[in-house]
Amino acid sequence: MSEALVDRRAAPALITLCSGPEFSVRISTIPAFGTIMETVTQKELLERVKMQLASFLEDPQYHDQHSLHMEIIRTFGRVGPNAEPRFRDEFVLPHLHKLALANNSQTVESKRIDIATQLFEAYSALSCCFISEEVMVNHFLPGLRCLRADMEQLSPEHEVILSSMIKECEIKVENRGMADAQGSMSIASSLVGEDAKTKFLSKMGQLTTSGAMLANVFQRKK
């Protein structure tokens, strides 16, 4: 299906279905919205889809909709690795972090296990993506730590894997910081070197000029 057809027909139809009375119908639109986010590049269309997904996540009427949250997490895990990086960094990962944090306070154990398991699958898929240091520190790592807190109580075998993932991410952040610091030192060293070189050449120029003037003086005296 062309992007133009998705824009004119598919997306408006999905948005209309989201306003229907049946929650099950609204939930069934989420994978389709995810597919649009994964395959379409038209900025205005992506923004409309993003707004609809945001309404599912932020509207109070959906806060206790367990099956809706499950479908959103499942969809994020499926489309996140292939979605536009900005959408992933600014929307998917921050909302996964919020869902992981909220799940720490879930009192119904069966629901807590469901969400934690789905989050584990999503984070495992997204861990293969390039994630900026800012997003890693502010959202990805905190989300993983929230998930690990759940798995410590619910599934120790998952907790071991999450601890390994967290350690690996922390090392990546540390290595990037060291690389940035080394890069800054290298640039500073280069600037200092260039400055010293310029000063040296300037001095040499002055000495050469002085030497030439002295030679002229001696020649005149002769």
UniProtKB/TrEMBL annotation:
One of its GO terms (biological process) is intracellular cholesterol transport. GO terms for cellular component: recycling endosome; trans-Golgi network. This is LisH domain-containing protein. It comes from Perca flavescens.
